[in-house]
Amino acid sequence: MSGQAADARSVALDAYLARRAGHGFRVETRSGIQAVIVRRHPLHFVLRRFAPARAEQRLVVSVDQHGAVTSLAAEPVRW
Fold it and tell me: How do residues 23-57 score in pLDDT, each as one tens digit?
């Protein structure tokens, strides 16, 4: 992959993450073309005990070779 293509993918990912940050998501992990983002419910500490599926929303975000960004639900964190 050329440096220019990698830069375009990184720019697309940066723009997407900035938009999602406006919706309350934060970056949990990130590489050049992929990131895991998470948004916690305001009542996270209560919900994680009684309704863990609603406590937080985690997404895997990736950028393909054409610069298209996709996001899929991520597995919950297991402790």
Answer: 889 999 999 899 999 887 666 556 566 666 555 78
Q: DSSP 3-state assignment of 8?
A: helix
CA distance 14 to 32: 9
* Dihedral sign from CA coordinates of 11, 16, 39, 21: positive
Domain boundaries, the chain: 3-73
For residues 13 and 69, the answer to whether their CB atoms sit within 8 Å is: yes
Place of tokens 């940050």: 21
Per the document, the length of the chain is 79
Handedness of CA 42, 43, 45, 51 (dihedral sign): negative
On whether the pTM is more than 0.85, the answer is no
